[in-house]
Write a structure and sequence with these properties.
This protein has 2 domains: 206 residues, 3-Layer(aba) Sandwich (Rossmann fold), CATH 3.40.50; 193 residues, Rossmann fold (3-Layer(aba) Sandwich). The chain starts with a strand and ends in a 10-residue tail after the last strand. By secondary structure, the protein is an alpha/beta fold. The strands form 4 sheets. Strands 3-2-1-4-7-8-9-10 form an 8-stranded mixed β-sheet, with helices on both faces. It has a 5-stranded parallel β-sheet with strand order 12-11-15-16-17. It is built from 16 helices and 17 strands. About 1% of the residues have low confidence. It is 39% helix and 17% strand. The protein is elongated. α10 crosses α11. It binds ligand SAJ.
Amino acid sequence: MTFHKLCVLGLGYIGLPTASTFATHGIKVIGVDVNRRVVHTLQNGEVHIHEPGLRTLVQAALKSGNLVIAEQPAEADAFIIAVPTPFKKTAVSGQRSAISFPAADLSYVISAAEAIVPHLRRGNLVVLESTSPPRTTEDVVAPILERSGLKAGVDFHLAYSPERVLPGQILRELIENARVVGGVDAASARAARELYATFVRGEIIETTATTAEMVKLMENTYRDVNIAIANEFSRLAERFGVDVWEAIDLANRHPRVNILRPGPGVGGHCISVDPWFLVEAAPDLTPLIRTARQVNDEQPVYVVDLLRRALGDLNGRRIVLLGLAYKPDVDDLRESPALEVGRLLVEAGAQVKAYEPYKQNVRIEGIPTAPTLESALRGSEAIALLVAHTPFRELAPETVAAMTDARLVVDAVNLWPPDVWAAAGFDVHRLGVGRQTTDD
Ligand code: SAJ
């Protein structure tokens, strides 16, 4: 199949890089977004997303004339749906009692599919990229597209292909990562492979649409469960007087063991969300996945406990949070466990302020962020190190000591070498490192 014209619906973290990459590889692309502000920003050559290299790529795509931005889809050879699938709270009855957990909100996927219907022609390809519960392509998207009078897998091709790129490295990973393409039939998978072969240099593997949906959810769930066990190990290490960081490092010398890192919890819009799509789809089959989610969601409580053990009563204590982002070296605060730590501290009566090097001088969920590290540290009594950002890694204890009288550090990410900081007069309490707790 040859593709001359492509329509990408959703110009977010995935859709915009994808649309621009196709355009710089010679395909005519209509990039569509329902958000008028996003459309205007892009039409003016500006970019609303912070991702290394993206601005240059988008500008090149626009300048080539291959990328045009619009509010409505138009006829094309292929359509890619890359809209968000956020989650909403819902209550579902379990065997023993009613359990409440987040469920996928497919309203954007549904609207995007509906918007394609009037433009769908015989021989077209439609690909869903949005992370979705198993069977969404077959059971939700196909019936909507078939309102056109055309049949999926007969008159047009329909496939699911998950994105797997890491925020911060999207442009490189989009091209280099292996790509799974799942079709509602073999011809659909083949058509999707031909489309992505335009720029993907990694292997492109054909499978069924539902398998591809499962693959995406399994990848992120595996990571969530692995982090949950690391977090649980950190709790055990504290109780038994062990340094979990050393223990994990030693365990990982085993050739078939790879335990991830404990921390203040799991954030972001992927790993902290996607496992719920499996729980929602089959609550009776997913006790482990649900428990792992809960373990990771509870982790901020353990960081706050560490502060409480070090400081005593938290009421009125002046605590500075270093880092609010969901992970190192990104400016993304979605589902960030650091924000939850801040919220719990405020609830306990502490006077909290934060310094986030990638987002300064704003108030985030009631937590004021300082414009500089120095102004954040000034007047504080304790430092909670919550994100392993490079600028924090590079800080010397002497620099911090010159900015504040605070000498108490709670390090949730094992960033500051305790001996070095102790030698400079700091009392460092690391998450997952056994000291006898007062309630033991
Ligand atoms: N985290 C830990 N310990 C670790 C690793 C991560 O606590 O050892 C935390 C991070 O601090 C962060 C969260 O987990 O809060 C998630 O971070 P991440 O780097 O694991 O993942 P994301 O959400 O930025 O990107 C993931 C990636 N999936 C996998 O690695 C399996 C990416 O490839 C996906 O494209 C992306 O989800 C997505 O869009 O689904």
